[in-house]
Amino acid sequence: MDSVIQDFRKAYSAGDGYGLAQTLSPIPPSSQSERLQKFFQSTNYASAQKEFRNQILYDNSGPKMPMDEGNGWVEVYTAYWKAIGEILSAEAAAQSNARSSWTKVYDAWKELTNVLHRGYSNCGFEAWTVPCFYVVGKYLRIFAIKADEDAATSTTTMTNFDDFNPEAERNEKLEDAARQLNRIFNLCLSDRAPLEESRKWGIYNIINLLFKTYFKLNSISLSKNILKAVRAYTGDMPVLESFPLAHQVTFKYYVGVINFLEESYVEAEKNLTEAWNLCHKDSVRNKELILTYLIPCHLLTTHTLPTQALLSPYPRLQSLFLPLSRCIKKGDLSGFDAALVAGEDEFVKRRIYLTLERGRDVTLRNLLRKVFLANGFEEAKEPGAPQVRKSRIPIAAFGTAISIDSKETMDNDEVECLLANMVYKNLMKGYISRPYGMVVLNKKGAFPGTGV
Amino acid sequence: MNAPWGIPHSQMVAPGTAPHYPPPPAYTPVVVRQTFTTGPYAMGQQVSPTQPQPITVEPMEPKKKIDWPQPVRDYVQRSFDPCNVLPDVPRHEMEAKLKHTISVATDSNSLDTIDWANIPLPQQMIRLEKVQAAPAWIQESVNVHINGNGQINPAREHLISKKRTSQDLDRDDNESVSTPPWRNTNNRNGFEDRITYPANRIDKRQQPFQDDASKGTSKFQKNLEKRQRRFDGGYKSTYKVSPEPAATGPVVGTSQTLEKRYFRLTAPPIPSQVRPDPILRQTLELLKKKWKKEGNYSYICDQFKSMRQDLTVQRIKNEFTVTVYEIHGRIALEKGDIGEYNQCQTQLKALYDQKVGGNPVEFKAYRILYFIHTSNRTALNDVLADLTTAEKEEKAIKHALNVRSALALGNYHRFFRLYLDTPNMGAYLMDMFVVRERLSALSNMCKAYKPDVKLRFVTEELGFESDGDAAQFIYDYNGQHLLEEKEDGLRFLTGKAGQTFESAKIQAFKKVDIKGQI
């Protein structure tokens, strides 16, 4: 008990919020691997609360604090102590292959969350201690996931008499965790204290935890409600730029991905680029995550592909994007289709399949451009005049190109349809003259942005 | 709804003695009430298992100088008789009840009129009350759970946790919690209840902590939080982890009626109104016949919903359940009731995951088409993730996947070929988005083809039944000026269309009602 409470006193006296939060971590520091066992064994259920009270409130060597706040911390550490007990027994059970109960761990940890929440709403915990929520919230989510994993067979109560609700049953605890995090979110958001002592400074960390949870629950649309709520408070909130970089980067990343999934690629690209620029240079994993969405974004908005140099530090991204990139560049339609099929599982898992699929348009454009280039020049009317490319191209010529490497020849109507799409999407300038079976391309800039 | 702590008393307490009345002023001559408030029932905290009899009825007697009638003495005797002890009623609870009963009787001067030999013993009363109280709070927690889909209102959660403790009142040793706040003020010492406090003082004394040294927090904030504290009963409340709602396990139905109107349940089902599996099978046969004969959708839908409900409350998840959902899903599709269809498909997905038979290929294909209709990209992605390689090769699923990719790539040519060759009942779903895809294809053509195309070409490319239908469609979207008779038939003047179909297309894509309710 001593080391935990001593750390509490030290952090409290110093006003060190992150240090304080660390005393509530369920993971011992590597220098004191026995810390949690010792902490738990130092007292028992009957006297834990009393002992914490003595140490926090009545020990003159500790920091002075108002009575109700002190009582709040007593409750917090009592709840923490109980949760640690559950964690230790769950871990011990896991080691001996017995059935471990992460559900109990979750419930105990949730109680800790609630007690902490009450500390702010009722006992006057100050805003600088808000990092405690980061630690407690983080593990609340983790324990919920573990609890749901081993509660696969648990019998849940029926809440809807009309139909089964398998999804809710599978993620019962995690959904509950989302609700708890939402309470914390509201606690931070609705703090009306002046900014310098406001819990609002905790908001983005909690939002990021919520986003993470919603993504896992596959209810990404709920993230929009959070964004809406934050927007409603815009005037009363510190600007995002004044928050810790870590909060900013994660937040922008999630906002970017949310927009990405809604096909708002321009907005997505903006946020992801900001996240990319702010991201710490050594967080390879985070940069990799950002690029996973930024690259497909870029492909759609600017029709550009990642360079080798950009991808070189990320072998995973290379295997993800390089095969497709090569085919897009070459205008290799069947190669593109094959690469898309080959990577389908990975792409679907990362939710980029539907976006990458649209890279086929760029592939087709590159192929048609090759046809255009291969078609050669008009016969010069007078010697010395600048060469002009032939702008009237038979539909059949495109059809042949499209059917390369394909077992069957695409019928003309379908070829026309693909060409019409190119024109419609402004990837190709010109028109189809159906009676003549010809495509008439613009003399200048038939393929915008490609130099011809 | 009664305050939860009101429940146990409601049958026993005469109105004038209801416990939440302000403490009597000092001069109140009623002696008995003193024991009532200082007794273990009121506070519970003096009772500890090691001191089983801190205040029994006997010591009460000389103090009050009441000559207890013999029947009352016998009643007390019987209450403590070991052979009358009920294991689920703790002794201190029983004592409290006993005291309460006697004091009420004394207050109402009915000590001599009550038939003490025949009224239930206190422990029996407690048990009875528990049984009576149970359904009320089970129901309450269920309701909350239903409402709590999004977020449980903390205040409400708090309320429930109190409710729960009120049921096993005083079971825990330190139960200052479940004691209503007004009691707290009464129990400082034996004489406290003789002092009348001004109202605002009482208010203050209810706050467990009053240390006002505000450090860092703004005064405003502090006050605000204080005010809030006043409402949620103070910090000390053992805010129990939101109570487990009473387990409403599966029921076994006993109803023998085939037909039943759908009624949305808000409380646990009553077995006599639930049809068991064999009856439901007969119901299905009856409904199939009726649907064929009468085709009354609102009747059928209602009946199917009640069948689904009966299956759910009995937790029947077998091939028959699948059949019910599949048939309802098909009928809903046919009638364009996309909301009901969606409910069925959601259930079917879960049922198919458990491999209990049915036609997963057919309905998985519908599911893809449905998500195309609702433009639900996230769900489409998930569907792709869930399909196995073998499933992707199944005809209906392959068709649906091809529809998806054709639309994703703007390949209307392929899309309309697929539309004309849809397996099973998928065409009902495709009908829902074929109009917007036609508009999309038309705007596409209008931009790409110059100066015109044969109307015949539009008919074929966009899967119309006849040139007439195609012309009608163009008319419907104000394209009459774009049709021109030439020597070789009607022509569609794509070059002159401008934005005619573009704006209609944007409108059509906007209008997707994601929930699909009608």
TrEMBL record, chain A:
It holds the Pfam family PCI. Coiled coil: none annotated. Residues 249-446 form the PCI domain. Gene3D superfamilies: Winged helix-like DNA-binding domain superfamily/Winged helix DNA-binding domain (1.10.10.10). InterPro entries: Csn12-like, PCI_dom, WH-like_DNA-bd_sf. GO terms for molecular function: double-stranded DNA binding; RNA binding. Belongs to the CSN12 family. This is Protein CSN12 homolog. The lineage of its organism: Eukaryota, Fungi, Dikarya, Ascomycota, Pezizomycotina.
TrEMBL record, chain B:
It comes from the Eukaryota. Gene3D superfamilies: 1.25.40.990. Residues 176-189 have a biased composition (Polar residues). Residues 163-193 are annotated as: Disordered. Pfam families: SAC3_GANP (PF03399). Residues 262-478 form the SAC3/GANP/THP3 conserved domain. One of its GO terms (cellular component) is nucleus. This is SAC3/GANP/Nin1/mts3/eIF-3 p25 family-domain-containing protein. It comes from Amylocarpus encephaloides. The lineage of its organism: Eukaryota, Fungi, Dikarya, Ascomycota, Pezizomycotina.
